[in-house]
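Page 37, continued from 36.
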């Protein structure tokens, strides 16, 4: 594996344990080096359960369960030296800042912000950088069309995607001539399991991949929600020739939202970048 150099201005995460940097997205891949716990790695790409990273100018893959979790502040908040509001302030973290969560201790998260380590009251952190309760969710689980129109949801494109994590349903809307949202499709989906939940909040489509996977599986028609979270197909074998798990309506993914192949392909082919996504 050759050494790699890259410009900065990237996303960084931190290792939560000693972690093998591997040559491929597989636990059987060659070990390039062992990254010590607490090390900073540069993220090149992510897809569900593996990240492609650079550590000490070496490029490889790590399993994402052992990396810090990305969260965002939705207001200015103090980074504290201990998990109590009486402790000293380490830094002021501005609104909409990205922090890396190392662990949680009740109402406080142990985080790193701009290479400074401390604690933030986790009420002020979210997956999307928006405060809780931004919408009226009264009809979210029972009448999604009413939810999106009553809340006057905006999207930069003529489409809108919502996913109800409890009922495990993804909805596709199209903007009507009267500027109201019209429901096009309602699809069963599989979402993140409790230990690797799907992110919640308001997001915007940021690209797509025809497929990704490892030596044990492949998924197709992946449309990025944020970071390593995607809408994509159910699981295929590593060659992409045969479906090996077509379960829908369950909570068992690593955080991505799985759809029937034809539904994932419809999003991949038709939904433009910057389209609004609401997940709750």
């Amino acid at each position: 594996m050759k050494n790699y150099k890259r410009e900065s201005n990237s996303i960084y995460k931190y290792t939560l344990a000693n972690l093998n940097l591997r040559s491929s997205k597989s636990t059987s891949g060659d070990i390039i080096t062992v990254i010590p716990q607490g090390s900073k790695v540069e993220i090149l790409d992510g897809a569900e359960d593996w990240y492609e990273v650079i550590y000490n100018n070496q490029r490889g893959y790590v399993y994402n369960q052992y990396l810090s979790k990305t969260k965002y502040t939705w207001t200015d908040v103090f980074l504290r030296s201990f998990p109590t509001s009486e402790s000293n302030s380490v830094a002021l973290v501005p609104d909409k800042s990205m922090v890396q969560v190392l662990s949680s201790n009740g109402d406080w998260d142990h985080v790193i912000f701009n290479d400074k380590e401390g604690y933030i009251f986790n009420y002020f952190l979210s997956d999307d950088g928006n405060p809780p309760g931004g919408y009226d969710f009264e009809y979210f689980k029972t009448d999604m069309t009413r939810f999106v129109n009553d809340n006057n949801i905006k999207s930069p494109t003529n489409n809108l995607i919502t996913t109800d994590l409890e009922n495990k349903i993804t909805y596709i809307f199209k903007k009507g001539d009267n500027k109201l949202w019209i429901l096009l499709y309602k699809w069963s989906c599989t979402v993140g399991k409790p230990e690797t939940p799907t992110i919640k909040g308001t997001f915007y489509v940021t690209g797509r991949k025809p497929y990704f996977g490892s030596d044990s599986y492949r998924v197709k028609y992946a449309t990025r929600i944020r970071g390593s979270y995607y809408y994509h197909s159910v699981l295929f074998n590593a060659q992409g020739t045969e479906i090996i798990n077509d379960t829908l309506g369950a909570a068992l993914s690593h955080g991505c939202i799985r759809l029937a192949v034809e539904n994932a392909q419809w999003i991949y082919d038709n939904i433009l970048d910057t389209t609004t996504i609401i997940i709750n």
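The two ends are 41 Å apart (CA to CA). Flag for discussion at group meeting. The mean pLDDT is 93.
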